[in-house]
């Protein structure tokens, strides 16, 4: 079997596994977390009514395609896990800096963290006595609502 055929087969297999996991997640009431369904729908909308295999392949999972390209077309479990973990933590770090960076400098300082914590404390200290009492703690499920008020 030619190297390009093996690579295409490997990619389709990996994409199918990712798609199967996403479909299973969707069946549990979730949605496709990797965004491939959205990218596929966008590709079809942007086309003249249909997409060919190359367009389909491009839309499915560009992150996986990049990881494979960065590793010479083959990736081990360890390499894939490390790349996915790195990308996940980079997204988390970016969101944290966006949330805390009060000056919009793209960096996180102790000053930013303290200012954010003071805002959160003030929101929780409903009676303004300088303490957070048990009755002022957020109820289960309130966390997301309170955090969005702070931001």
UniProtKB/TrEMBL annotation:
* Disordered, as annotated region: 124-151
**Which keywords does the record carry?**
Signal
Q: Which residue ranges have biased composition labelled Basic residues?
A: 141-151
Query: What InterPro entries does the record tag this protein with?
Result: EF-hand-dom_pair, EF_Hand_1_Ca_BS
Output the PROSITE patterns linked to this UniProt entry: EF_HAND_1
Keyword hit for Signal: yes
Q: Where is the composition biased (Basic and acidic residues)?
A: 126-140
- Highest taxon of the lineage: Bacteria
Q: What Gene3D superfamilies does its record include? A: EF-hand
What are the boundaries of the signal sequence?
1-24
What is the protein's name according to its record?
A: EF-hand domain-containing protein
Biological source species: Mesorhizobium retamae
Query: Taxonomy-wise, where does this protein's organism fall, top ranks first?
Result: Bacteria, Pseudomonadati, Pseudomonadota, Alphaproteobacteria, Hyphomicrobiales
């Amino acid at each position: 079997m030619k190297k390009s055929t093996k690579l295409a087969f490997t990619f389709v297999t990996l994409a199918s596994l990712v798609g199967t996991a996403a479909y299973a997640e969707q069946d549990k009431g979730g949605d496709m977390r990797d965004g491939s369904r959205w990218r596929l729908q966008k590709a079809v909308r942007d086309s003249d009514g249909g997409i060919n295999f190359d367009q389909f392949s491009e839309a499915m999972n560009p992150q996986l395609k990049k990881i494979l390209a960065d590793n010479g077309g083959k990736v081990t479990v360890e390499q894939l896990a490390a790349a996915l973990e790195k990308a996940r933590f980079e997204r988390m770090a970016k969101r944290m800096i966006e949330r805390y960076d009060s000056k919009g400098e793209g960096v996180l300082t102790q000053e930013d963290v303290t200012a954010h914590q003071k805002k959160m404390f003030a929101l929780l200290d409903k009676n303004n006595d300088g303490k957070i009492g048990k009755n002022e703690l957020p109820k289960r499920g309130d966390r997301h609502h309170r955090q969005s008020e702070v931001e």
